Amino acid sequence: MWELPRFVEEVEQVRQALQLDRTNFYLLGHSWGGILAMEYALKYQTHLKGLIVSDMMMSIPAYNQYAEQVLMPAMNQTVLAEIKRMEAAGENENPRYMDLLMPNHYEHHILRMPAAEWPDPVNRAFKHLNPKIYVPLQGPSELGASGKLVNWDRTGDVAKITVPTLSIGARHDTMDPAHMEWLAGAVQHGRYLFCPNGSHMAMYDDQETYTSGLIRFVQDVNAGRF
User: Fold this and answer.
1) C-alpha 86: how far from its chain's center?
2) 6-10, 32-36, 125-129: lowest mean pLDDT where?
3) 173-225, pLDDT tens digit by residue?
4) How many domains does the chain have?
5) Residue 47 near residue 23, CB atoms below 8 Å
6) DSSP letter string over 135-149?
7) 201 and which of 11, 111, 116, 154 could share a cystine (Cβ 3.0–4.6 Å)?
8) Whether 47 is catalytic
């Protein structure tokens, strides 16, 4: 039931309902939304004026490799071992699971500020996260992926994207910023926006860089300067 084609068609239904087209339709996908935005563009890019892929690599295997080779070795290994044990035992709903992830991973790579200071929209998003959809697709946490999307890889297809595309990466992101820079060069008309102080939610922890770069991209495309 929860498969990529379903979500792509839901985006298309919204586009039609709002009567958007290639003269005014920018699609921004962040994180999982970056997967969805790319899938939509690969099927319906004739409807797009511009595409923004924010903090999402085009390969889940590459994302997992980055997590295992770069992010996890930098963690407290005792904590990581307990997190892995809890995941293997299916204890991801145990409050201790998130108590370990938050200070040891999320505050470093998801949103770089103490969890007690996270903005209300972020807290509401986590509060209302639907595990019946999230876990089967992503897995139990942001520490790598293990759900239905585990083999998702569009690195061989992104060259088909002809619409102006902005790829956004961040130094402390869960997503490899070098991969995000690669994406900007792999599409036919790409630009890379790097957030040097940002993490996965760079729109909050490197807000000025993120927002100004996004606005500049839209302005340049609208003015034919891209």
Assistant:
1) 25
2) 125-129
3) 999 999 999 999 999 999 999 999 999 999 999 999 999 999 999 999 999 98
4) 2
5) no
6) HHHH-SSSSS--SGG
7) 111
8) no
Q: What is the pLDDT of residues 48-91, one digit of tens each?
A: 999 999 999 999 999 999 999 999 999 999 999 999 999 889 89
94 in Cβ contact with 87 (< 8 Å): no
Question: Annotated catalytic residue: which of 30, 47, 105, 173?
Answer: 173
Beta strands in 31-131 (DSSP E): 50-54
Same domain for 50 and 73?
no
Instruction: Choose one of 134, 149, 164: the last residue of a domain.
Output: 149
Q: Of the residues 179, 199, 200, 205, which is catalytic?
A: 200
Residue 226: what pLDDT? 77
Q: What is the DSSP letter of 47?
A: G
200 is catalytic: yes
Angle at 203 (CA atoms; ends 80, 5), nearest 5 degrees = 75
Check 31, 141, 167, 199 and give the catalytic one: 31
Judge whether 153 counts as a catalytic residue.
Answer: no
